[in-house]
Specification:
Four Helix Bundle (Hemerythrin (Met), subunit A); Rossmann fold; six-stranded mixed β-sheet; 14 helices; 44% helix; binds guanosine-5'-triphosphate; binds magnesium ion
Length: 461
């Protein structure tokens, strides 16, 4: 697979009002284009552009009209992001200026870059492997400390290094198997099947650990969907507001205040939580409330964690019990709200509804017990292990699927060796497992797969 031979350009900074905007050009003509569109302050053309030097001057169009005062930096291949010649023009920000600078560049026979095309070229030119290119997307999209850290680790090649080490082990196994296939009569017992099985067990253990990290990695990357549910008036909206630290949802003493679902994001200890407040669930609902409840149930269905809110100051009602039974199978936390007031029921009273979990006492109004609740939510994402600096996590379904396939192939190999299957068959599964790992790294993956991945990027990256 080859990178494009044409020269591409795009605005690399967000479109909008800002101090500076960067127009990035990459490809064989990048330097020549820079020479043509950029002049020195005195009006003379630049004679010799040194790589990795910053020049001050003006962007001019074909008629010689000054478009903007700007800085130019040329990075000659292979010492650039794409490993091609790159020119970056830092002009004034704002939609009009950056757009005009881009048009000036495009007028020199340069093509507009597709989303992610710069990174795609970096990948195709071998500067990044696919896991690292994907990490660039995650880094750009990271909104919390945890997802940012996971992306930085992956960009640094932590996942690639782990996979390459596993692959090295598999190649060793493959070498022994091939030797057994090539010289069967010579009884060349290089290593016993038991030793090979043992090696494969080591490989499987490492792959299993990676596969298991996906649950955590995915939640760190995408955040966890948490829904607040309960009967009307228990304080769901108050709890959402308290967790957000601002008055987002309407709160009132009147039951049935919240009709629609309200989704907000917050970060707890660097972990992204997508929190949704829902309409109170109850039996005697009017038409609007019924629609609200229908929406609430969709949110409940999709949530990865439910916060079931009960009013500690009022006796448990049939509606409370309904909510408890409806959510019994889902991952949930039970919260007894209004703990600033006298409590009307004890945890033992919940037993009749089958709810045996611990109950967290909070007061959304007085902000009591919120820290405890937040810590319990984060524990659902991270388990009891805090996030470590250099943890290797699988964060994408694409990686996870390939790792699962690799594991299946390795199980087949071990089974084959234990049951003295022909070595040719066994070797086939080893090469398939090697291919699964190569897929994650993006070696010889199909063009459509790349298209799908790189189109998640923004233009200019
Ligand atoms: N004393 C006390 N009152 C609270 C607390 N939390 C909420 N309330 C009050 O309970 C009433 C209902 O609160 P909301 O947050 O609107 O309840 P909700 O569950 O969202 O109600 P719906 O939207 O109708 O389903 C309001 O009058 C709140 O001020 C609390 O911790 N202590
Ligand atoms: Mg409400």
């Amino acid at each position: 697979m080859e990178a494009g031979h044409d020269t591409i350009a795009a605005i690399a900074t967000p479109l909008g009002v800002g101090g500076i905007g960067v127009v990035r050009v990459s490809g064989p003509d990048a330097v020549a284009v820079a020479h043509r569109v950029f002049i020195r302050p005195g009006g003379l053309p630049l004679t010799r552009l040194q790589s990795h030097h910053v020049y001050h001057g003006f962007v001019v169009d074909e008629q010689g009209e000054r478009i903007d005062e700007a800085l130019l930096c040329v990075m000659r291949q292979p010492h650039s992001y794409t490993r091609e010649d790159v020119a970056e023009i830092s002009c004034h920000g704002g939609v009009m200026t950056t757009q005009r600078v881009l048009e000036t560049v495009l007028a020199q026979g340069v093509r507009v870059a597709e989303p992610g095309e710069f990174t795609r070229r970096a990948f195709l030119n071998g500067r990044l492997d696919l896991t690292q290119a994907e990490a660039v997307i995650d880094l750009i999209n990271a909104r919390t400390q945890a997802s940012h850290r996971a992306a930085i680790n992956q960009l640094d090649g932590a996942l690639s290094r782990r996979l390459r080490a596993i692959r090295e082990e598999l190649i060793q196994v493959s070498v022994y198997l091939e030797a057994g296939i090539d010289f069967p009569e010579e009884d060349l017992q290089l290593v016993s099947e038991a030793v090979l099985c043992e090696r494969l067990r080591g490989v499987a253990t490492q792959l299993e650990a990676l596969s298991a990290s996906f649950a955590r990695g995915r939640l760190l990357r995408d955040g966890m969907a948490v829904a607040v549910v309960g009967r009307p008036n228990v304080g769901k909206s108050s709890l959402l507001n308290a967790l957000l630290g601002r008055d987002r949802a309407i709160v009132s003493p009147q039951p049935g205040t919240t009709r629609d679902t309200i989704e907000e994001e917050l970060s707890i200890d660097g972990v992204l939580i997508r929190l949704t407040d829902t309409a109170g669930l109850h039996t005697a609902a009017d038409l609007i409330e019924q629609e609200g409840m229908r929406r609430a149930r969709i949110v409940v269905e999709r949530a990865e964690l439910l916060i079931v809110v009960l009013d500690g100051n009022a006796a448990l009602t049939a509606d409370d019990l309904l909510v408890l039974t409806e959510t019994a199978e889902a991952p949930r936390l039970l919260v007894r709200n209004k703990c600033d007031l006298p409590m009307s029921w004890t945890v033992a009273d919940l037993a009749s509804s089958g709810a045996l979990e611990p109950v967290l006492d909070v007061s959304a109004l007085r902000q009591h017990g919120l820290h405890e609740l937040e810590q319990t939510i984060v524990r659902q994402v991270l388990g009891n292990e805090p996030l470590s600096q250099d943890e290797v996590l699988l964060t994408r379904a694409r990686h996870h699927q390939s790792i699962i396939s690799a594991l299946e192939n390795i199980r087949t190999v071990r089974h084959g060796l234990q049951h003295e299957m022909p070595l040719e068959c066994v070797a086939l599964n080893v090469s398939e497992a090697l291919q699964n790992i190569a897929d994650v790294l993006g070696e010889s993956v199909a063009g459509e797969v790349l298209d799908r991945i790189f189109h998640q990027f923004c233009v200019g990256k």
